[in-house]
Amino acid sequence: MTQDELKQQAALRALDHVIEGSIVGVGTGSTANFFIDGLAGMKDRIIGAVASSEASARRLAGHGIRLFDMNEVDDLPVYVDGADEIDASLAMIKGGGGAQTREKIVAAVARKFVCICDASKKVERLGRFPLPIEVIPMARAQVARQLTLLGGRPVLREGFVTDNGNQILDIHGLDIADPAGLEIQLDGIVGIVTSGLFAKRGADVLLLATPTGVQSIERS
Ligand SMILES: O=C[C@H](O)[C@H](O)[C@H](O)COP(=O)(O)O
Q1: Do 27 and 97 belong to one domain?
Q2: Domain limits at 207?
Q3: CB 15, CB 116: distance < 8 Å
Q4: What are the pLDDT digits (tens) for 40-63?
């Protein structure tokens, strides 16, 4: 089975978590795209969706799914999104597509975060995937210095601008023994908009697609 087939299996399983007659929070990336395509099959049974990126908004609109601005929505039963890495506590690294700021906002509103992944994303310890950090452009050098002091090796994502008009530093080599502690530390660095660590608000359910089936793992 290919990695894309596994992503699709996890994504389609997430449709079971969608509440009919509700607005659905929708993530970003190749796995989330499979979810969007699946959601199109039940678009008449939902009110619409909130997207975590311009790319997902375009894909949702292309399927004729009604889009809502996050500011119009005060109750979001479910948010479905992929991850770059996820550990046993369901803490994640996200932002491989640079969308972590809007993703974290939608996830913060959602009552349930359903993470959809193929088995390659599950890790013992977060950090092999470089941690994406969205930065205000004028703060890039200051933030890079702070991240170097923390033991990381910041690399600017060349030619990339986020949906919010900012830049991404990918931090290599960080030792992420305490994901929530590091997330809090990063939140305190002036110039960082959002780190790609999702530990304070991790996933509630992981749908992990393996060659022998999709495992559903709940946060303990
Ligand atoms: O910014 C992108 C998001 O955090 C994605 O959810 C993450 O990068 C996983 O993407 P994919 O499903 O394409 O591996």
Answers
A1: yes
A2: 3-122+200-218
A3: no
A4: 999 999 999 999 999 999 999 999
